[in-house]
Amino acid sequence: MAMITKTLFPGRYMQGFRATGRLENELLNFGKVGLCIMAPSAMKMLSGRIRQQTAGLRLICEKFNRECCDREIERLANLGQECQAQFVVAVGGGKTIDTGKIVADRLGVSVAVVPTIASTDAPCSACAVVYSEEGVVVRVEYQKKNPDLVLVDSEIIANAPERFLIAGMGDALATARVAAILAAKRTSDLIPLCHHLALTGVDIQFEIGTADIAITATVRTTDRTGVEMEALTAVSVAALTLYDMIKAVDRAARIDDIRVVSKVGGRTGEWTR
Question: Is this structure's pTM higher than 0.85?
Fold first, then answer.
């Protein structure tokens, strides 16, 4: 039986320094009247900037009441109907963006999202978590499509509170760890003439410095040859995964000094750099 896979993406994805300067031109693709749902912090810090950068549109900016619950969704959907919104813009974190996606889906209009923190995957997904007014998860709602526009302004992300960047980094490290383990197991598919080995263990450790992350891969096998290539591949792919996730914030990020630190066992015995 053939396996069928499906992948969904945003209609358009943009990122870069001060990318919100392109917001008006992008929103004109959806219409001239929109409802802009803004997290309280975004309303305070960014509402003036957003209004100035979308002066050619009629954009009704409304503060999000912090919880993606049925009452808030209904309130904002009614507001969207009253102003005859042709699109919805959600500016904020995960709950703000999820609310914007549901409201747009119910109104049958396009949705653009402008995330303000790194620690959320809401911008690119076609589902949203609905909570009670007390913050308890009630259900997951699925939208007909992914967001029509995801616009990531790296300046906004970089200026977010440190705790949100750390939370986002935690997600990035977890993803990099999985990528590294998978890469170690597939090294023979990536490197010509590299033997396929039965690995008995792959451990990935991250040491976070003030301006860097050190990655260590420890690979074990009982097979017939060493696992230097598997360890080097694991570290390389982990580093590439992290780079992919932080390049919007730090375009000057680089990968340095990948090397074998030590080897134990095998015909050549023990070796340490």
Answer: no
